[in-house]
Amino acid sequence: MKRKRFSKRGETRSALVAAGHKLFSEKPVDAVAIDDIVEEAGVAKGSFYNHFKEKNDILMAVRKEVRENINIQVNEINSGVEDPAVRVARALSVYYRLTVDDPNIVSIILHRDANVGNAIALEVNQGALEDAREGVSSGRFAVPSAESAAHFIVGTGYAGMVSMVSDQNVSLVASLARHLILLVLRGLGLETDEATSIAAIAVEQIIRGQGSGNANDQTDDVGGE
Q1: 86/18 same-domain check
Q2: Between the N and C ends of the chain, which has fewer C-beta atoms within 10 Å?
């Protein structure tokens, strides 16, 4: 292995995280060893332990990076969407679509370690919390608190990905996604007809890739009355 020279400590860490991201994206997390990561990064094995205690630590760093990248996608696809119910449906659709497009990325998101604790409790998505707060404050969501709504949204998102990642079939994923998003929206207090419409449009546009995928198309169709 030809080792690379990095002038700053932060550069070595960045190289290790980039290597971990690449390898975890290519094969299951449990199939990646620390030796694989340092070889891909082009650094000495001792350098790994200058930055991380164990593989799970670098997995968490990669996981944080992955979630940030997905949140960028969610923000882009929800640009211009004012209805928090539609935003929730579209955000969940982005995560569910990943089970088809990039199952190894999903395995990074879902991977658990005994020392990590409850990742759902610790990592409530900030966007979900903001949407929940807006929904509660505007009266759009009829739930006890924004925090409980955010946990409900994120928890259903995780549970759905666990089931979908083994299928990797657009039709099966779309069907389950539509039902789960409907469940979430009904749980947040929307009427069945409106929740069904919002869920169906989000799934068709984002998971099935039908139509323009433009946020305004969905808001025009469902209205959020």
Answers
A1: no
A2: C
Q: Is the pLDDT of residue 157 over 60?
A: yes
Helices 192-202 and 170-187 meet at what angle, rounded to 10? Answer: 150
CB neighbour class for 69 (10 Å; exposed up to 12, middle 13-18, buried from 19): exposed
- pLDDT tens column, 66-120: 888 888 999 999 999 999 999 999 999 999 999 999 888 888 888 764 344 444 4
Other residues' Cβ atoms within 10 Å of the Cβ of residue 75: 13
Which residue range is the domain that position 29 belongs to? 9-52
Contacts of residue 113, defined as CB under 8 A and 6 or more positions apart, other chains included, come to: 56, 59
Structural domain contains residue 192: yes
Asked if residues 38 and 27 have their Cβ atoms less than 8 Å apart, the reply is no
In-domain check, residue 58: no
Specify the number of domains making up the chain.
2
Same domain, 44 and 67: no
Taking CA atoms, 109 is separated from 8, 22, 198, in Å, by 29, 14, 26
Q: How many residues comprise the chain?
A: 225
Same domain, 91 and 183: yes
